[in-house]
Write a structure and sequence with these properties.
Blueprint lengths: L3 E4 L5 E4 L4 E4 L20 E3 L5 H4 L2 H8 L2 E5 H9 L4 E4 L4 E4 L2 E7 L16 E7 L2 E5 L9 H5 L5 E5 L8 H11 L3 E5 L11 H11 L3 E3 L6 E3 L1
Parallel strand pairs: 3-4, 4-5, 5-6, 10-11, 11-12, 12-13
Antiparallel strand pairs: 1-2, 1-14, 2-3, 7-8, 8-9, 9-10
Helix pairs in contact: 5-6
The structure holds nickel (II) ion and manganese (II) ion.
């Protein structure tokens, strides 16, 4: 049993198992880093970490076309129902066993308004148990010490923002790796906009030299099998 993780730029990934296709934070349209078109993605489930446009992105059109169920916080789930999209609302600290595996919402220190200013609930990260593998997508967040607790899940792959300004920057991301001690860390949420430009190679080298985690820089369109 394997999980195939495909990067689409920014914080967007596909997680494909033998039975399910998941998509997380599908910011495709308007994302200069994305290699796919929103029309080419056919997920069964879409996970949304918060309501900001660079994460909510193409969720509604993709879900309407594919029939995907949106998994997010209660407020975003409610918004999806209004849009005629199937959803499963959850909240921080809660886990649920879906047909494809288990999902738990974790804290994230950030904001979560919709584009019109409407309240988008608490931002979150996701801890996922898929086919015997444990994945952690941090969403948009600053560093928090409770990552130590999240790390107790025994993470195979962590996806961490390194862009700074809106989220953790490189130094805090390295501290996060030390708290989470995942086997592999994929860098995300950088270079999409000028204000979050980073030298990802040097961040990867620092992770290599200062932690026991394997850093991964994925190019949009690239797939990693775990
Ligand atoms: Ni955000
Ligand atoms: Mn963001």
């Amino acid at each position: 049993m394997t999980v195939r993780i495909t990067y689409h730029g920014h914080s967007c990934f596909s997680f494909d198992t033998d039975t399910a296709r998941l998509l997380i934070d599908p910011f495709i349209t308007g994302n200069s880093m994305a290699e796919v078109r929103a029309d080419d993605l056919n997920p069964h489930y879409i996970l949304v970490s918060h309501a900001h446009g660079d994460h909510l992105g193409d969720t509604v059109p993709i879900a309407r076309r594919s029939g995907a169920t949106v998994i997010s916080n209660y407020e975003i789930a409610h918004y999806m129902e209004e849009q005629g999209v199937k959803s499963h609302g959850m909240h921080i600290g809660g886990a649920y066993q879906f047909p494809f595996g288990k999902v738990k919402l974790t804290i994230a220190h950030h904001g979560s308004s919709f584009e019109d200013g409407r309240y988008g609930g608490s931002p979150c990260g996701f801890l996922l148990w898929l086919d015997g593998k444990v994945l952690y997508h941090a969403g948009d967040t600053g560093l928090f010490y409770d990552m130590t607790l999240i790390g107790q899940a025994g993470i195979d792959v962590a996806m961490l923002p390194i862009g700074d300004n809106f989220t953790m920057g490189p130094e805090d991301a390295i501290q996060a790796v030390q708290f989470l001690h995942p086997k592999t860390t994929i860098l995300m949420h950088y270079d999409t906009f000028e204000v979050i430009a980073q030298d990802e190679q040097s961040v990867a080298e620092m992770i290599s030299s200062q932690t026991s985690t394997r850093p991964a820089i994925m190019r949009p369109g690239e797939t990693m099998t775990v």
